[in-house]
Amino acid sequence: MGDSGSCRPLGFLIGLPFAFLSLLISLVGVVVWIIGSVLSCMCPCCICFAGIANMAISIVKLPVKIIEWFVDLIPC
């Protein structure tokens, strides 16, 4: 009842393949973020490039969110 993460190693192991897959997707997000950042610096009048860069940041954070989601699904 104390530490909620100490009894859920199974959720971590089950979520590991999906986190690896999302890690590969996050690499694509890094490339999109770099391109979006460069384009928004070159043409600051286009707000869509900033939106693309922000979307890429959420893609980069995806592996951590997926691992947390799987760990939370496994009951103690």
Overview of this structure, please?
- The chain crosses the membrane at residues 12-36.
- InterPro entries: TAXIMIN_1/2.
- This protein has three helices and no strands.
- By secondary structure, the chain is mainly α.
- The protein has a domain at 21-73.
- Helix 1 runs antiparallel to helix 2 and helix 1 (9-42) runs antiparallel to helix 3 (62-73).
The chain-level mean pLDDT equals: 74
- Provide the β-strand percentage band: under 5%
What ranges have pLDDT less than 50 throughout 5 or more consecutive residues?
A: none
Helical residue percent band? over 70%
> How can the largest sheet be summarized?
none
What is the radius of gyration computed over CA atoms, rounded to a whole number of angstroms?
Answer: 17 Å
What is the N-to-C order of secondary-structure elements (H for helix, E for strand)? HHH
The SS-based structural class is mainly alpha
The gross shape turns out to be elongated
Number of helices, where a helix is a run of at least 4 consecutive DSSP H or I residues: 3
What's the total count of β strands? 0
The first-to-last residue Cα distance is 9 Å
Give the key terms.
mainly alpha; 3 helices; elongated; 76 residues; single chain
